[in-house]
Fold each of these.
Amino acid sequence: MGLLKFSFSKLIKAYMILVGSVMILGLVGGVAVKLYEIQLAWRSDTFQSVEGHVESQTVILSSALGARNQYEPVVRYKYKVEGKEYTGSRIALAREVTFRKREDAKQWLRENIRENKRIEVFYQPNDHSVSTLNTAADLSMYSSLFTALKFASLGIVIAAIFLIPRFKRLFKVKKHQANKLISSK
């Protein structure tokens, strides 16, 4: 029984280290993407505009980890810059356009976007493939960054709780080996 409990204990520790590490890696990636979007929003005053047209629109279910369901309008549009055609789908910079009810998202699309409708598309001058329909930035763009940072911190704490004792044991073993080596001389 003691062997089974000991193995189970190791399994739990390994699982928690894995969970913490995956949280850290996943959320570091999420933080990097969010920082890129915020940086885009800061430079949005340099974006230029061109006429484009809506190709398609729909509403999808998009829910964050642990959050209740949210509905996101998705718009695909085309635009031309210097004779080259581009396709975009970003509605707003550094923030998501989401709704709690599917009907609210559909209503937003009816009021703001119509298929085959001519629209104003904003694009980045040094990379014409980066585009958006709305360059406005607001404080809500920081909320998901702070959420990602909170989860990354939680991942670090989880991993540290289970890794620090291992490092202490490793340090004690190395210190013991060093003392043994010194005393044998």
Amino acid sequence: MNDGGRLAPVAGAGDDTVSGFQAQLVQAARDRAGSWDAAAEVLAAPAERTVERLRSGEIATAWRLAARWLEADADLFTADLMSLDVYARAARRRDPADDLSALREDHTAHLAPAGDLADAARQVAELCRREADAWATGDAPAARGLRADERTHLDEHLVPALPDAAASLAAHAETRVGRTLGRLLLAILSVETGTDYTREGDQ
């Protein structure tokens, strides 16, 4: 991240050689896996470890790194990631137990009714990792097949419920961090599907 809070580009993004392009595909798939890992952590029922990672800034860092492959489009995440930075910097003034309780209340009210979306997000992350491995070994047909599998899994297991659940969190969570996380979930889904779900969080 640079001094303005923007995401630094992925190294080698300007390389127009075949090997450079392959490296970009590998990194993009790995970054997308990291993005869905972070989403799964948010979608799961909050635990003490989740609170620790939010308070330390680890989740914000994970999402920031996961958005590198978007280059200029990563600005979609910048404001909300900076909001998570503020949440982390102010953590010393809050009791971790209070943070956990607040996150659990928001999760129960807005995400839990949609079912186990965390497991679906983890499965997308695993498919992304397998895609990265396929690109790394030069198996383009397998990589493309896995990319198609990712989209199918999204359409079947996340698109039916995640937009409404994340929009509810983004618009109506009691905590500011809950609303921020809801917007980040909508941003990830928008990037992955090509449908702008971020507007739903503004309603």
Amino acid sequence: MVRIRGETLSYGDLFKGVYHQDVERLPNSNRVYWGPAYFDRTKNDDGYRITFGEYLILDRQNIRPTVLVMDSVLDRYPVKKLISTRIEEIRRQKSPRGFLFALGTPKVRLFKDRSYVNIAIESLDHIDVRYIDLFDELRK
């Protein structure tokens, strides 16, 4: 068991692989969402958009959740080089896929009549970015 912000959870309840769950049925508190993800820069080139490879379901639509890591947040992070180097190395690969663990809560956003699901993280301490070979190791 683990205790986070007064909530006691089993490890099984703490970790949620992103794989076809209904967003409305997910807990409204922090969990570790994990899975293969694609790494890219935002459209405004002011941060990174990390998009899970699998989707969640919202109103019968398949939506791939994202985690946004803005440059302004990275610039203030004490160990910026560690995380930014790993993200950038993954992003520059021919296939920009990595493995993401993100402690946060799914938030539904509406922008230009389109729904998005973002995993809202409170700190860069709440994400871990790994190379995709971790996925191969976990499958063994």
Amino acid sequence: MDIFIDNKRHKVPKNIGFSGAMDEINRVLKKQDKILQNLYVNGKEIIENSILKGQNVKLIEVSTRSNRGVIMQSLGMLEENIDNYFDNLDEILNSESTMVEYEKLDEILIFVAWTYGILIALKENTAIDLIYDDYDDFIFEFKKAFEEANQALEAEDTVQLFDILDYDLGSLMSGIEDNIRVYYEQAEKEELRKDIIN
């Protein structure tokens, strides 16, 4: 069986099965701090929930991404979509209806949770908190506001919820919007530096 990781041949024991090969690939990726992006078996792409039906596996090809690469992609998506946070919130706040639009509210809270995940991943995979000495405080404030928003939602206190979404999280989202290019550039710089070293 031949295994290629990012177009580089990787040696494996001769009589290794598919499961053993995947274990070896995962070990290598963990060591290289990478994430599996695409998997091809015998030239065919394997997608989620695919089943290999007793195939004689001769070739496994894997393409990967680094954690920072995923973060940079997520920051790009965040930059493209951060205005939706404000647009959806404005739409709810300025609605003529007395009924709360829970579908839009869910969208907003899911976006906030996703944004928080990006902020944490950025801290864990870059030196952003060393460059910005207030980054840890920023994350703490973001988490606190998000938790308070969820508590207000559970208590069905829509006045408190909208205050948090509009003022507290709105201010924090604006801060992200102002700094997102710098966050991206820092992750990119560290990714390039890693590539040069390797």
